[in-house]
């Protein structure tokens, strides 16, 4: 079955060659050479009409329908690596993922992922429900998000944990550094989220209320733990639902994007303007990844039905930034 995706030409891709624009917009799946081949094979429609000229000029707002090539059958290879395992038994593994580690192989990341390390560690003892490239993976964290994950060692555990995720019975708590000072200091964010029509790598809030075809319900509860002058705050987020990029999108949606988040930032212009001479501003702007950490994980064990609770302190990079921010606000 053909794998079709739909994208819209954004302003910064207008005027480009079609093959170049596609390679940039779908860079996780298509090289420029592959994009040209797809176009010339009749796999691209522009505003509903076939387009086989790779050098056709794009225009802002054009709607593209693209048939992606069938992925090659692949299996995650074993690659030994140091895993920060917090808990392990015959049914589940709980680990603390560092920032910078991709969870599973995909376009652009064929190996060197957490799954490759798990395959080496478990030697065949992983659930197969996630497929050949995602064995044992019940849920994911973004590459640059750190913190706790649970992995299923067999299919029975996978089904049980998946049911807890879908039934919102598995608790996940995150800590994040965000720009500004959220007001009110605690609250509930409820939106519908869908893939961005202009960039398939991003998720966006949709205005289509209660229409399941225009996004999935997403609910985040947040509260402020500490503030560092007007520039930034440390917050706690509890997920009622677990959508892709949910916390990152929700905090940006209410005007307080996560520090270091290059995708859903930047910091509010008004804050940068009023705090341009604040000596702490360079520290925040230099932070190299989204300051988001999965700090608590609760689930019911799939075999003994007993509750399990795990915690992870802030990683070193976030701890150091918090210490510097605390010291800087006392000057």
Features:
single chain; 331 residues; alpha+beta; ten-stranded mixed beta sheet; four-stranded antiparallel beta sheet; 14 strands; 28% strand; globular
Instruction: Compute the number of strand runs.
Output: 14
Q: Given the structure, what is the number of helices?
A: 8
Helix content: 10-25%
Major beta-sheet overview: 10 strands, mixed
User: How large is the share of residues in beta strands?
Assistant: 25-35%
> Which term fits the overall shape?
globular
Mean pLDDT figure:
90
Q: Uncertain regions: pLDDT < 50 for 5+ in a row?
A: none
Q: What is the H-and-E element order?
A: EHHEEEEEHEHEEEEEHHHEEH
Q: Radius of gyration over alpha carbons?
A: 22 Å
Structural class: alpha+beta
Distance between termini?
62 Å
Commentary on this structure:
With 331 residues, this protein is α+β, with helices and mostly antiparallel strands. It is built from 8 helices and 14 strands. The chain has helices at 18-25, 32-40, 114-122, 155-166, 246-253, 269-274, 281-285, 316-329, and strands at 3-8, 44-46, 49-50, 63-68, 85-88, 92-97, 146-152, 171-179, 186-195, 203-206, 216-228, 232-239, 292-300, 307-311. Strands 5, 6, 7, 8, 9, 10, 11, 12, 13 and 14 form a 10-stranded mixed sheet that branches. Helix 1 (18-25) packs across helix 2. It is globular. The chain starts with a strand and ends with a helix.
Task: Explain briefly what this protein structure is.
Helix content is 21%, strand content 28%.
Write the layout of secondary structure elements.
Blueprint: E1 3-8, H1 18-25, H2 32-40, E2 44-46, E3 49-50, E4 63-68, E5 85-88, E6 92-97, H3 114-122, E7 146-152, H4 155-166, E8 171-179, E9 186-195, E10 203-206, E11 216-228, E12 232-239, H5 246-253, H6 269-274, H7 281-285, E13 292-300, E14 307-311, H8 316-329
Parallel strand pairs: 7-13
Antiparallel strand pairs: 1-4, 2-3, 2-4, 5-6, 6-7, 8-12, 8-13, 9-10, 9-11, 11-12, 13-14
Helix pairs in contact: 1-2
């Amino acid at each position: 079955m053909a794998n079709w995706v739909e994208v819209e030409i954004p302003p910064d891709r207008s005027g480009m060659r079609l093959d170049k624009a596609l390679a940039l917009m779908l860079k996780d799946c298509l090289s420029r050479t592959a994009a040209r081949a797809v176009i010339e094979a009749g796999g691209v429609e522009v505003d509903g009409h076939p387009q086989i000229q790779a050098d056709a000029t794009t225009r802002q707002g054009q709607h593209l329908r693209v048939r992606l090539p069938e992925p090659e059958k692949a299996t995650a290879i074993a690659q030994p690596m140091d895993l920060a395992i917090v808990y392990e038994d015959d049914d589940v593994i709980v680990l603390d993922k560092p920032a910078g580690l991709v969870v599973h192989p995909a376009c652009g990341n064929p190996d060197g992922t957490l799954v490759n390390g798990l395959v080496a560690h478990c030697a065949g003892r992983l659930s197969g429900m996630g497929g050949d490239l995602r064995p044992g993976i019940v849920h994911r964290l973004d590459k640059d998000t750190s913190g706790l994950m649970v992995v299923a060692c067999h299919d029975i555990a996978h089904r049980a944990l998946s049911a807890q995720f879908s039934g919102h019975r598995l608790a996940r708590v995150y800590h994040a550094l965000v720009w500004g000072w959220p007001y009110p200091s605690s609250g509930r964010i409820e939106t519908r989220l869908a893939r961005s029509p202009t960039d398939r790598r991003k998720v966006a809030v949709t205005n289509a209320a209660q229409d399941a075809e225009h996004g999935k319900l997403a609910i985040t509860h947040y509260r402020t733990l500490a503030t560092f002058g007007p520039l930034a705050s440390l917050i706690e987020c509890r997920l009622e639902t677990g959508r892709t990029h949910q916390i990152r999108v929700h905090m940006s949606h209410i005007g307080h994007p996560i520090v270091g988040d290059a995708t859903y930032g930047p910091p509010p212009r008004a804050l940068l303007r009023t705090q341009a001479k604040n000596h702490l501003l360079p520290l925040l702007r230099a932070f190299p990844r989204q300051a988001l950490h999965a700090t608590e994980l609760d689930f019911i064990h799939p075999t003994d039905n007993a509750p399990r609770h795990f915690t992870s302190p802030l990683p070193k990079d976030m701890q150091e930034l918090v210490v510097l921010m605390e010291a800087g606000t006392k000057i």
